[in-house]
Amino acid sequence: MSNIISQSIHTIKHWWLFLLSGILLILGSVYVFSAPQESYLSLAWVFSILVFANGISNVIFSIANRKELKGWGWYLTGGIFEILIGIILLSYPAISIILLPVFIGFWLLFRGINIIGNAFELKNIGVLDWGWFLLFGVTLAVVASSMILLPIIGHITVIILTAFGLFILGIANIILSFKLKKVKSLTIDKVDQFKNKIKSEFNNLKKEVINNYEQLSEEEKLKIDQAFEKYEANS
Predict the structure, then answer these.
(1) Count of other CB atoms within 10 angstroms of residue 224
(2) CA-CA 20 to 30 A from 191: which of 130, 149, 198, 224?
């Protein structure tokens, strides 16, 4: 996902997928955080659904932009992997219960690294507040690393860290979606300005050539016309 921002403006027309993903992640975090005493199975189910939905979003985005987005196959592969993980966790809840902290940790770590990459992409295109995006990515990576390195930290702690991580990831996706939308608008404006500038300079040059031609003597005009006729005959 880190190269998405630097692609042509056609890839950014699907910015709303990140907005939708962000909203779902925040709703999931609110649900998890609002009921920390719920069973561990409930958290495993919510996590599985979110991973599955996020995978579908990535697959749709990659296929829709396969002609414009370089390396779209990586995004497609990542989306398919998330879909498969979601299906496995939903089909075998016992596995997700046992390995839930590790699954969540590695998934959030992967997403945190992507966010960090996106932050530097935003910096490269001149977005001033890219540092906040970098902070989100680093924070998410720290939370994820804690869950991976300390898998036996208690169910309540896992639930709280998961809710916090999902919330950060959701906010980051929403911010990214509007950044992509803004980048598209800015890019289109710059293209229009460039076209208008070229058109204006061409018209000014055309007027200058015509004025200079009209100021020539008849003999000079005749020589120029003959030169053009000779050039066209040889072309």
Answers:
(1) 12
(2) 130
Instruction: Say what the alpha-carbon torsion angle 16, 20, 26, 28 is, to the nearest 10 degrees.
Output: -160
Q: Which of 123, 172, 180 is closest to 5 using CA atoms?
A: 180
Q: Which tokens is 170 given? A: 């959701």
Q: Write the DSSP assignment of 113-172 as a string of letters.
A: HHHHHHHHHHHHTT-TTHHHHHHHHHHHHHHHHHHHH---S-HHHHHHHHHHHHHHHHHH
How far is residue 51's CA from residue 57's CA, in Å, rounded to a whole number? 10
Q: Residue length, the chain?
A: 235
3 secondary structure, DSSP code: T
Encode pLDDT of 196-223 as tens digits: 677 777 677 767 767 776 776 677 667 6
210 burial type by CB count under 10 A (0-12 exposed, 13-18 middle, 19+ buried): exposed
Cα–Cα distance measured from residue 86 to residue 92, given in angstroms and rounded to the nearest whole number? 10
Check if the beta carbon of residue 115 is closer than 8 Å to that of residue 174: no
Among the ranges 4-8, 58-62, 107-111, 125-129, which has the highest mean pLDDT value?
A: 107-111
User: Among positive and negative, which fits the CA dihedral 88, 140, 25, 131?
Assistant: negative
Cα separation, 132 vs 134, whole angstroms: 5
List Cα–Cα distances, 1 to 114, 116, 153, in angstroms. 6, 10, 31
Nearest to 209 by CA among 227, 226, 221: 221
Question: pTM score, two decimals?
Answer: 0.63
